[in-house]
Every structure is written in C-alpha cells, then in structure tokens.
Amino acid sequence: MEDSPKTDPSKAGKTHQQGAEDNAPKSGERPDQGKAPAPDHYRSDPNRTHVHAHIPAPDVANAKYEHPILAQPPEALTGLRLEGREKIAAGVTAVIKSMQFSWTEGGVGRGTKALLGLNQKDGFDCSSCAWPDPDEHRSVAEFCENGAKATASDADDKAAGPEFFARHSLAELSRMTDRDQNNAGRLTHPMVKRPGDNHYSPIAWPDAFDIIAKELNALESPDEAVFYTSGKVPNEPAFLFQLFAREFGTNNLPDCSNMCHESSGSALSPTLGLGKGSVTLNDLHEAEVILIIGQNPGTNHPRMLTALQKAKRNGAKIIAVNPLIEAGLVAFKNPQDFMNPLRALGALMGDGTPLTDVFLQVKVDGDMALLRGIMKHLFEAEDMNPGQVVDKKFVDEFTVGFADFEQNIRNTSWEEIEEISGISRAQLLEAANLIAHKQKIITCWAMGVTQQRQGVQTIQEIVNLQLMKGAIGKPGAGTCPVRGHSNVQGDRTMGIWERMPKTFLDALQKEFNFTPPTKDGFDVVESIKAMHLGHTKVYFGLGGNLLAAGPDTELIAEAMRRQKLTVFVGTKLNRGHLTTGETSLLLPTFAHVDIDMQKSGHQMTSCENSMGVVSQNKGILVPLAGDQLSEVAIISGMAIATLGDKTKTDWVAMTENYDVIRDHIARVIPGFENFNEKLRKPGGFYLPNGPRERKFTTPDGKAHFSKTTLEKYEVAPDQLILMTVRSHDQFNTTIYEYNDRYRGIHGERRVLFMNPADMASRGLKAKDLIDITSHYKGEERRVEKFVAVPYDIPKGNVCAYFPEANPLVPIGSVAKISNTPTSKYVVVTVVPTAVNNDLRIKEREKMMEQA
C-alpha cells in the first residue's frame, strides 16, 4: 500500500491519491461479502408493549427559576445577522472554514497532522458522520468541512482539567453556551461530584470504579441501571459495554439509534430481512435515478455530495424531497476540483454541479402521501405500457404481498395525496416520469423521515417503490438509509440494543460461559420514563449527550436528578454532564484521533459505516497530558470492580490487546470470521448483506410489500407543525459556532424559520422576539425568546434547531412501532414574547420568593 501524507509529509498538498487495491470493487461490481447472508439484529415487533406510564409535562418555561443548573441552553441572544440563502454547497469557503477551525482548535501542526490522517486507509476514522470512504483510491483531503470541524475539536490542544472545574461551579458552567462548553478543552482527569457538592473535583480511577461497583451492586435488580451508548463509540468498546451490561444482568442498553434510524430498522427487517441499507458507494455512481428524502447532505453528510456529483456526471437524475430547499440539494462545488488543473478554474468561478432535477417541497410529515402519489402515477403508466414500468418478473420471483399493496395505492385518492403532501398531481407526475422507465434506482433517507409519526410506514412505502421497480439487489439500485454518527450502525451490530435476538444471546453465552438476561430492556424513551418514575437508580452514559439529544429536555433533567449515580464518559464537556444524580462521575477518554497505547502496543479499533464496511481506526496524535483511559480500559475497570469473582471473562487480556476482543467478536457475530485478518486489509471489509444479492432473510425468504395506512391529522387554525434540524456549524449535539451560512443565519441559534404568510397572519416581522408553545394531548410546553425568521418553508410549517427546540418535543409523542421521538412533527403555536409579559413577570417573582 502506498504511504499516505501522514507517513510521508512530502505528499501534503499534492494531488496524490491512495492507490487502488486489487480486491476493491470497481463501479458496477458487487463487493466480496464473505459468507452470506447473515440476518441483521433488528427484531421488529409491531405488538411490543412499551412503557406507557403518563408523566405530566414539565414546566419548561419556568425551569430556569427552579433549578440553578440550567438544562436548556441560556436564553441570552448572541446577535442575529440575516443573509440570503446560499444556492451552492461547499466550494472554496468550505476549504477555508475547515482550515480555520483546524488550526484554531489544535494548532497548525497538530491540526494539519490530524486532517492528513483522517479517513485514510492507514489512519483514523472520522468521528462525525458514517458516510463511507471510497473502496479504491482516497484523496489527500478525504474529509468534508464538518469532518474537519469534528476532528479539530477532538484534536483540541486546550485542557479542561481539575483547575478548570475548581474555578467553575456546575451552575456557572450551565450558563455557558453549548459552544463555549465544547470549546473549554479536552477532559483530562477523572472527576467526581459528591452529594451536596456544586463542583466536580478530582478522583483516582480505582476510587471511581469503586463508586460504580458499590452503587451497581447495591441495586435490588440489575434492571435498576441504564447503560446508554453514543454512536461515536467504536466496535470493540461497544461489544465490551453490552457484554458487561448483560453479565451484570440487564438488557437496558438504549442508544442514539433509538432516536434516529430505529424506524429504518423496524421497516427494513420485516420487508427485506436486513435492518440496514443494501447499496454500496459504487452503486450511487451507477444509479440512473436517486431519490433523496428527508435528508440534507450539504450539512449532515457533505461527502455524499461527491458521490452525487459523480452520479450526475454519469447521467443520473436526482429527485429531492424536503420541506426546506437546502444548498446541498441544489448544487455542489467539489473542493477536490481545486487540485485538478482541468477543473480548478470552473470550480472557482463557475456555478458548481447542478444536482436536483425535480425538487418536491413537501409538507412536514407528508412524505408517505408523496410516495403514494408517485407510485399511483407509475401504476397508471403501467396500465398504458404493460410490462414496461412494473418489474413483474422480479415481483413474481422474489416478493409477496404485491396485490394488496397495488390495491392500496390505487385506492388512495389524488385529493388526499395532494392535501397531505402539499405537492400537486402534476409535480408528482414529473418525478414519476423520471422513474417510470428506469431500473437502477436508489432511495436515500435520514431523520426527516425516521422521526415522523409514521416514519416506519413511510420507509415501508420506500421499500414498496424499490420492489415494484425491481430496484434492489443489482448494481446501481437499492435502499440507502444514511446513518448519522460514525459507528451508530456498528454499535447495533455489536449488540448495543435492548432487544437482541436469541441467536445472539446464545452465542454470547457459549463464548463467555454465562447466562444472559432474556427480558427486553428499555430503549431511550422507556429509559427516560423509568428514570423519571424512580424505577432506576444508576445511569451510565458511554459518550454522547442524552440531555441535549433526547426529547422533553426538562423531563430528562429531572430524571437525571432522581438517580443515585450518574456516570458520563466523554472527551469534552457538554451540558449533559452538568445535570446529575446525587453522585456523578465525569470520566475522560480518548477520541478517534488519539494514540491508544496498551501493554501490547499501539491499539486500533474499528467502525462500520452506512454501507456495511468495517474498517480500522488508529489514532495518530499523542493525547494531551493527563489521566485519560481508553473506553475499553474504562469498561474493563468497571467490570472487574463490579463483577469480581462472578465473571469468567478475562477483562485484563482484552484491555492489553484489542485483538483478543476481536477474536471473541469473530466467534459471536456472523460476518466477522477472521476479524483480525480482514480488518488489517487496506480499506477493511464488507459485512454480509442479503438484499444486496437478492437473498432476503425474512422467514419465508421473500421480500415483502407492505399495506400501510395513510393517516390525516387535524390541527387548529392557529397551530403550526414544527420540525427540528441541525445548523451547518454543529454535528449532532456538538455546537461549533453560532452560524448556519447555507440558510443565511449568522451569530444566532434561537431562531424559528417561518413562512412569511404565517408571520403576517400573526403580526410578526423579521427578527421579532417570539415564544413557542407545543401542544400534545391537552398539555403545553413553552420556550421563550426565540427570533422569527422569514423563510421559504411550506405554509403551516416551522423549523428550529435542536437542542434549543427539544424541550418542546413531548416524551409521549413517538413513531409507531419504532418508539422514536417525533422531532419532525410537533404541534406548536407562536406568539410575540411581549404577550402577557406583565403577568409572567409577576408569576416568576412569586416563584423566586417561594424558592
């Protein structure tokens, strides 16, 4: 394998490409998957009973007067400046922003070294999104702007150590913005907040493990503990985390997937037999038509734009479905073109590569109706051109349920389709005409779909569309759920799930000689409810920021306060570390970019990307001075202290050499045979994927069409439908800056995007201060002091950033089957902040006097 710039600095800045490997699949070829097919670990159960206990809505607006430690970001405005919406994503601005952020956070030397090792075959995996890397060559700059920001943040040369926490109480820290908390520096020492304390103070690792062990072993039942996982956690520590939880005796393993692509797995498993997507990166290059539904690649998965550009240059048509017209769906200037002499001038001066051919600006939650409209047109086209639109041969050979599905689509009225979707019959025909005579079709989707009330059913309609066209299991065609965090898909593969199937538990029992619990555990929503109701006493978070990622922020905060012990493992400070249980531990760990040295030497971990490729992650930067431990070492230390003689697992051996962990994984999880050998191949390896080969691992071996129910929801005349989104300067809950330049927002995050007509009917002007109240089953939640921004969004819909708007999302409002919070469907009303202001002041003064 050729050297990357990380090992040969002379290659930096040149148009060097990492060489193609002989075993890498080329465009149009199918990858070697090893033994196939292996079933996925999603176990969809439409009849599953969730925790339905009703918890009254928290007093969101007044919580800041009740608790000195703020669970919500401060209300202080940071200075909004409005500009026009940008129409081209990336370009030279993205390059400049990447360099600025990298050099500011980690310094020129440290920041540059980190970027040169990012996503290289002999480097480390990006800690942000899970978009796949090319199988063949990789460029010197194999990263995007957001990946550069995430890596720079991880490579930060500032330390938030004991002195920092001695200077600042938890209350003071909570009054920092989320950006300033992240920018405080890397966590370097284990810290503890003891009962009654208002500061974190240093603690030795053995003492920290002793606190965890005593609290866990004092529980009346192992189910009184919750073990939460962030999608940033690599495979090896994720496998150990679920192993420890199950040896301890519980399946309470909620993770961030419960809040994002749980709906995808719940829809894909019963229909195709695999809860993951079926395409490879090369398939996107070969596609004739690509649908992008409920996804904003320019901000959330910028490297996807390179694949879309290549597809367009190969002749593909793109249909975009989204309530907001995003720059990354319109046009793209590839920063890599600046290094190509033939394209550099065009990349600098031109308008970029146009991406979308048909843009359908759907209403929030209207995607199912829209898909039905497209398929209704396709059936009408099939009537006029028998055998040319629907792939009857594929349907007859590989599927069941087609007749009921077809009748369901044909019986849906155009009036219903147009009203719910907000898209005209003529516009839907334009999209259908692009699809009708094509077979290489890929549908991509993300949380704009999964976080709807009918997210699972909408994805079932996506599968229906792919199946009726025979557009699965061949080059250039298939399903593409675009995952968020770097290893959110891999964590599920490793067993991070509250409902793992018997086959996995049996394999775990055979390998580690213990009896795993079989009772289903709590997912995220159920965990929050159980914590709030006093059914649990210990919360352990392996990375992430559940407080800011989850729904109903103030309810989560109260749930945390009711725990005897909260434990947070992280790399940098976030708001979730501050709202704690009676005792709280803050434990510093390594990031992907850090060198992890153990007894056997420099360790590597692995991650699984959105398309089922498992590749190595090997840090290249010396960690900051301090007392950090790897995630593996933290989990093993906790396990040894807690389980004692009850465990037969050699936790020490696994900590000293991660190859030992991978040998265990190879014997437990199908597709990971010879894990250590395959991981060391440049670029990693593909996991088995049945649908990719038209091997559907459903009980009857067939792909299943679905007959869904299209539901219409009524709202009052003054009510609007809110969806939450990221800004361009954030990844998940991590805030890098206050800007969202593609949408023209600078210097502020507390904004609400509104249709100008909706603003006018409420007497609002641009930059007016407003309060937003959500309404759910007779209960209200109110956030104050947001700024109204006129924007091109469907009438009746509004949009705000998370985590600022998460307090409005009711804990009880979830997607059917998947139990995913409905952050893409929140009923709200909007009023000027000044309304009833005198009354509010009096109420607050009375509350403060009582406090």
Description of the structure:
Helices cover 33% and strands 16% of the residues. The protein has 851 residues and is α/β, with parallel strands linked by helices.
Short description:
With 851 residues, the protein is an alpha/beta fold. Helices cover 33% and strands 16% of the residues. It is built from 32 helices and 35 strands.
Through-space gap between termini: 67 Å
Rg (CA only): 26 Å
Gross morphology is: globular
Fraction of residues in H or I helices? 25-40%
Question: Structural class per helix/strand content?
Answer: alpha/beta
Which residue ranges are poorly predicted, with pLDDT under 50 across at least 5 consecutive positions?
1-23
Beta-strand percent range: 15-25%
Largest sheet: 6 strands, mixed
Number of helices: 32
What's the overall average pLDDT, rounded?
A: 89
Order of strands, widest sheet: 8-7-20-19-18-9
